Amino acid sequence: MAGLDPAEEIAALKSTLASIEAVLDPAAMQTELASLNEQAADPELWADQDRAQKVHRRLSYLEAELGRLDGLHQRLDDTPVLFQMAEEADDAPTREEATRELAALRSEIDALEVRTLLNGEYDAREALISINAQAGGADAADFAENLLRMYLRWAERHKYPTEVYDTSYAEEAGIKSTTFAVNAPYAYGTLRGEHGTHRMVRISKYDNQGRRQTSFAGVDVMPVVEQTDHIDIPEDEIRVDVFRSSGPGGQGVNTTDSAVRLTHVPTGIVVSCQNERSQIQNRATAMAVLQAKLLERRRQEEAEQMQALRGDGGRAWGTQIRNYVLYPYQNVKDVRTGMETGNAVAVLDGEIDEFIDAEIRWLRQNGR
Predict the structure, then answer these.
(1) Which of 52, 66, 126, 138 could pair covalently with 172 via S-S, beta carbons 3.0-4.6 A apart?
(2) Which range (131-140, 186-195, 301-310, 340-349) has the least confidence?
(3) Residues spanned by the domain of 263
(4) Which of 107, 15, 26 is nearest to 64 (CA)?
(5) Phi-psi region of 228 (alpha: psi -120 to 50; beta: other; left: phi over 0)
(6) What's 261's DSSP letter?
(7) Alpha-carbon distance 84 to 90, whole Å?
(8) Is residue 1 part of a domain?
(9) What is each CA distance from 11 to 68, 79, 99, in whole angstroms?
């Protein structure tokens, strides 16, 4: 739409917003919001902490989304007035302000339109993310920690709550692995395109000769399990180990054997949690992560079967997905969508929305 007459572009944006609302259904969102407000006012709600937190997270999400839609409508009404004022007064600064606002509206409505593509079975879920250092020694561990910061900064920019469940620190620097939750509706659908291998090229901070090093980190994105998923794990398929938490943390966390590691014997999947003081709480959280990993494993197996039926041999899409180059030049490029930028520092600081939007469109176009 860029390049149209401002009045025509504003009309086109209003039409696009109307199409988006036909999918999002603000009236249904208002009805759900009213119901959640009633639940939130019930003094008995906090007797079930998990349910109370889910109610309040959903409440905050709906309030923000409805406020966002109202704000876009108001700005679409106000922007023509800015252009009219600039024209009548032949005021260049006001015209520039109106042009910037129109560009911002175009960008925000395009991003909102991507949300309408999130209609997969689990897309509306919150997300669990695991990051594991792969080949590359200390540089890989450092890169894994860079990715953790990138996703946490991204979530912070969007005001999405996060919770780090477990972090295994590497001996020299960085982390071996970590698992954390993004507690926001549609977090799984939004982030699932990040699943795969990420590759970093830079001058090693850990090489005395200052040579260029290539390192790798794996990212797993899983939907949070809900009661309707029926992920039953027999007790005899789980090995439970308890150990003392390590790494940064309060004294109470680090001086008791409260950390829990679960091993799913049939698949070899291992998860652990050490962020709570209570062994019982850590075991419950670890079990939720294990269920999420098994759910994602089942989802991927089903997707591969469907791809095999379509005739592509069931090849997985989540292998190497993105290259981060910091030397001899700066570039970040997604190998599937072609999205790239020369501002690698901004990407590693959490500015990944353009990559995420491109991934969502690519996954939809490829029937993933």
Answers:
(1) 138
(2) 301-310
(3) 122-368
(4) 26
(5) alpha
(6) E
(7) 10
(8) no
(9) 19, 11, 15
Residue in the structure block whose two tokens are 């409260």: 258
Q: Which of 37, 43, 27 is nearest to 58 (CA)?
A: 37
3-class secondary structure, 182: strand
pLDDT in tens, 5-35: 899 999 999 999 999 999 889 999 999 999 9
> Where do we find the tokens 């899983």?
222
Co-location of 129 and 237 in the same domain: yes
CA gap 181, 37 in Å, rounded: 25
**2/139 Cα distance (integer angstroms):** 42
Amino acid 354 reads: E
Q: Are residues 170 and 271 in the same domain?
A: yes
**Residue 357, domain CATH:** 3.30.70.1660
Do residues 96 and 220 both lie within one domain? no
| Helix boundaries (H) for 41-159 | 49-89, 92-115, 137-157
Are 207 and 96 members of one domain?
Answer: no
Query: What's the CA gap between 330 and 140, in Å, rounded?
Result: 18
The total number of structural domains in the chain stands at 2
Q: How is residue 126 written in tokens? A: 């919150």
pTM for the model stands at: 0.78
Same domain assignment for residues 240 and 204: yes
The three-class DSSP label of residue 273 is strand
Q: Cα–Cα distance between 177 and 194 in angstroms, integer?
A: 16
Strands laid side by side in the 127-133 sheet: 162-169, 175-182, 127-133, 212-223, 196-203, 320-325, 331-334, 340-341
